[in-house]
Amino acid sequence: xxxxxxxxxxxxxxxxxxxxxxxxxxxxxxxxxxxxxxxxxxxxxxxxxxxxxxxxxxxxxxxxxxxxxxxxxxxxxxxxxxxxxxxxxxxxxxxxxxxxxxxxxxxxxxxxxxxxxxxxxxxxxxxxxxxxxxxxxxxxxxxxxxxxxxxxxxxxxxxxxxxxxxxxxxxxxxxxxxxxxxxxxxxxxxxxxxxxxxxxxxxxxxxxxxxxxxxxxxxxxxxxxxxxxxxxxxxxxxxxxxxxxxxxxxxxxxxxxxxxxxxxxxxxxxxxxxxxxxxxxxxxxxxxxxxxxxxxxxxxxxxxxxxxxxxxxxxxxxxxxxxxxxxxxxxxxxxxxxxxxxxxxxxxxxxxxxxxxxxxxxxxxxxxxxxxxxxxxxxxxxxxxxxxxxxxxxxxxxxxxxxxxxxxxxxxxxxxxxxxxxxxxxxxxxxxxxxxxxxxxxxxxxxxxxxxxxxxxxxxxxxxxxxxxxxxxx
Length: 474
Known about the structure:
One of its GO terms (cellular component) is plasma membrane. The protein is 77% helix and 0% strand. It has helices spanning 2-15, 37-100, 120-180, 185-210, 212-223, 232-274, 292-343, 350-373, 380-407, 409-415, 423-436, 452-473. Helix 4 (185-210) packs across helix 7, helix 6 packs antiparallel against helix 7 and helix 9 (380-407) packs antiparallel against helix 12 (452-473). Residues 373-381 have low confidence and may be disordered.
């Protein structure tokens, strides 16, 4: 990929050479004139060599880090597999020793022995022989299996690079096609509507890589003991929100793949019925697809790009939905615990009351930390529009649910038997109620908040813009 980029930089000046343009591969300060062929050729070769070796060194240094990371993962996999296998072997070897205390003479493995082991010496010799055979068999088995695991991990890493390359390549080629067809409104619109989706996906992927540590931090917060259900009622609350998250992901995945299937089937039908070589996606293709083999290869490449693009796009968006839904679940857990604890309060359990309120306050603060760490990015054409609207609707719907759940904390306190608590505890409860009335809302510096009002505003504004463009085109 890097060398292909280098070739592009090197070839571009050669293409302009026939137009008497003296352009160098890279933009840098040259303290002499390159208007003559000899200085130009020397500078061109010098920059080509510098670019080539710079790419080689850059890739080598980065690949060195990747290699060490992959080999470290392989070592951990080998170690864990070895520990599990050795634990099994220890169990097989120790079982006969424990049986000796009961007068039972049996060996670690079930195999044919052509002599009697009723005496101690033949038994011990056979026992040691089988233990050694078992040990070395496990060592060889782990070595061969770990070799396969290593190749598998390496292949998975290469597949990941290939998928990322396909997505970014399509995004770049689509941008080139948009620039080429900027004077033709129909072709420009056709290239933009998918190109912007892939551009957004590229930004999402880069954002995910930059904020991977924060995602891990969010998952760690959700795994702590305070956020786990403590009884059957809380377990039901968590299961309900888990079902919501799964349903959102599955529905979005289904409509996205239905859209992708529509894009893929239309060119296939055109090929079978009219022998038309039309590609599924509108992008710049620097070669002719009139040949059937070249057309099928390009069709397959675009199919893979679209398939993994849908998978990644749905995964990134569903990750956000999932975090919002689980944040709502934590607020509902907190309301349930607050109501339950206050209803069980008696005058003899003042210390437990303070502990319960403190736990709810800590839980509320934890939920606020979760919301601070979250970050967002905001028949084929009909399905595509439905997918985009569903994507936007999920963001706004669950953002609105989070706001309602957070404001419901005060209702949970009112529903409890708060009259039995002490004046000091009432002050704590009042503080919680006042703080909860602000609500938890996702927004970009207070401008675009994730709510149903925002969703309807976007729909109205989009429709108004569509009408304006339609009137202007007429």
